[in-house]
Amino acid sequence: MLGKKLVTAQKRGETRALCLGLGMVTCSMMMYFFIGITIVPFYTKSVWTTESVCKVLKASIKDKVLCPNSEGSEDEDIFPYPCLQVWVNLTASGQEVMLYQTEDTLDRNPKCSYVPVKLENSKEVKTQIETIASNFRKYQTFPCYYDPGGTQTNVILSRLYPPKGLLFAFLWPTLMFTGGCLIIVLVKISQYVSVLSAWQ
C-alpha cells in the first residue's frame, strides 16, 4: 500500500516537473519571438554602428520649436520646447556634423539634437535643455557613433540598442530555455531509471 502511494506521488511529481519544464520552454520561445519582432529590427536598421570620438564645436539653443507629431500619436504629444543644436567634429572623418542623442531623436525632429520628454512646466524643460547644453560645453570630447557607409552624415551620442543590450535581452530567455530543457531531461532520466529498476 505504501509502495503504491510512493509511486503515485512520484508520478505526480514527475508530471508537475515535466509541465514546468515545458512551460519554461514555451515562455522562452515566446520571449524570443517578442524580441525578434521588436528589438532586433531596430538594431539591424541602425546604421550608426562604428564608435569614434567627437569634439564639440558649437552648442546653441534656438527658438522654441514644436515636437513633430509622429505617425500614430495624438495631438497632445505636440508641445513647444527650445531647440538644442550641437555641432561636433568627427575625428574619424574630420567633418563638421550634427549630433543627435539617439536614432529616435533624428526620426522625431531632425532640426534638434535633443527632444525632451513632455513636461507640464515649460521652465523645467528649458532648464533641462540649458543644463545639457552646458554639459556639452564643459565636456567637449566624448565617444559617439557614426555611419561608416556614409548613408547618414550625422552622428549619435548613444545607440538605443547596442550589441551588449541585445545580448542582455537574449540572456533571460536563453537561461529559461536551458533550465526548461534541463528539467525535462532530468525527468526523462528519472523515469528511465524507475523503469529500469522495476524491470530488474
UniProtKB/TrEMBL annotation:
It comes from Lophotis ruficrista. GO terms for molecular function: calcium-activated potassium channel activity; potassium channel regulator activity. It is a multi-pass membrane protein. The gene is Kcnmb1. This is KCMB1 protein. Its main location: membrane. The chain crosses the membrane at residues 20-43, 166-187. GO terms for cellular component: voltage-gated potassium channel complex. Keywords: Glycoprotein, Ion channel, Ion transport, Membrane, Transmembrane, Transmembrane helix, Transport. It holds the Pfam family CaKB. Belongs to the KCNMB (TC 8.A.14.1) family. KCNMB1 subfamily. The keyword Signal does not apply. The keyword Heme does not apply. Signal peptide: none annotated.
